[in-house]
Amino acid sequence: MNIKIQNTEDKVGLALFTLGIIFLLYTSYIGLFKLGVWIDEIYTLVLTTLPFDESFFIILNDVHPFLYYLILRIFYNIFLLFGFDNITVIGKFVSLIPFYLLGILCITKIKNNFGLLTAGLFFLCLCSMPRLMIYAIEVRMYSWALFFVTASLIYAYEIVKNPSSKNWLIFTVLTILSCYTHYFASISSFAIYIVFLAYILRKNKSLLKNWIISSCIVILSYIPWIFTVIFQISIYEKDFWIAPITKRTVFSYIYFVLSPANDLVRGNELVTPTIIGTLCLFAFIFLIYKYHDEFTLDTLFVFVIVPIIGIIISLTLRPFFHPRYFIPVLGCLWMAFSILLSKSFSDKRIFIPILCMILFIGVVGAVDFNNLHEIDVESTEVESNYLINNIGSGNIVISNDENVNIFPLRYYIPNNQFIALNSNNTSIESSINQSHIIDRINKGSSVYYLDSSQDKIQSISNEGYQLEEIPINTNTFEYRIYKIINPMK
């Protein structure tokens, strides 16, 4: 990799790229050395440590494709070969990898196509703009979805410059990987293909044949998963958790993307307007008005198509779009922004104030990111200490539901026997009266019961069991814990 500094513009670009590295190293330090997770990450981590056949069955019932889980499992097994088994650190590390890969693309493909200034601006935005630091270390599929979609966009541009078979192949493979990583990465890739088709029909119809071939390959590659998608939709059709979309929700999307993240948006929280977010929006609009070109407009169309599709589905079928589903396509947004801002370099009255605003958002965002992550760190520590102190290890834990509580329990106190009441074990008695459970009880294991709905408490008492409720000293739990005093009654 040869970086030639030819002018002041290149020097500024290299400095900005270096700043991006500093932000990414800061994010990496927070993620790898201050461990904190929330329930979705716990789900991912436990799923990775389960036997493959069991985990794959659970994935089929999830609302996401399987590729990310496979990537994490591969890295987990590699680390195990070297004797390292801290699944939380491994998960954070795997989530960070796409940002380092994007850094490589910035200093190679983007630098070659748009110059070092654009490459430096883009990497700085990727590593410091709102929400991206959070998702860089979240043990979910969003950082990989961001990488695959952004890399797809980069290679779509490569094809325009050099429509070689190699570039078409890479573009097609990246699209397939996107589709198997997250459903909104699929929609993002669909947007890229549609916008690319519009370009081809306008400017270069010779690319149409290969576009059709590429599209057919992607569609054919996705057919094996279509039946799973239909199955997943049928499972969650009636009880998906996303709230209905309103005007306030749509307005909130703008500030989710442009305002420093001073709150966690994991449920149906709305992001309130901020002054800095509004200034960033005005700066963006101004840059589009003054410096737009065909590629930046196409790239922005790709970005805009994604929430439009999400909102249409949400309004016509059922709520389907959440702000975090922006993450896969945010690379497209900041790519357009970086190109536009780099064009203003000769006019320091425009370039310097907007760059200062971006740096301010990054610094404020870094502080907010650390503060928000501390919430997860503290919650993780509280829950871990509570469960270890009150349940410990080597015991039997029965849950009132097959899906409730099992994942956090397996994460915090893995060295226990977990049983879920289901069609096979409909009562405490049927759960306990198994030879291996009786043997463990006779050897000193205690029996605990976790209940999230209180609908089985009376029936347990009717079975003749005595329950002692263990006081919960934290509001992070959504269930009650009981110790069964007389498991052998």
How would you briefly describe this protein structure?
The protein is mainly alpha-helical and about 500 residues long. The chain contains 20 helices and five strands. The mean pLDDT is about 90.
Characterise this structure.
This protein is mainly alpha-helical and 489 residues long. It contains 20 helices and five strands. It has helices spanning 8-33, 39-49, 52-60, 67-81, 87-114, 116-128, 132-137, 142-161, 165-179, 183-203, 208-236, 247-258, 275-291, 294-316, 330-343, 348-390, 406-412, 428-432, 435-442, 457-462, and strands spanning 396-399, 417-420, 447-451, 467-470, 480-484. Strand 1 (396-399), helix 17 (406-412) and strand 2 (417-420) form a beta-alpha-beta unit. The longest helix is centred in the last third of the chain and has 43 residues, at 348-390. The termini are far apart.
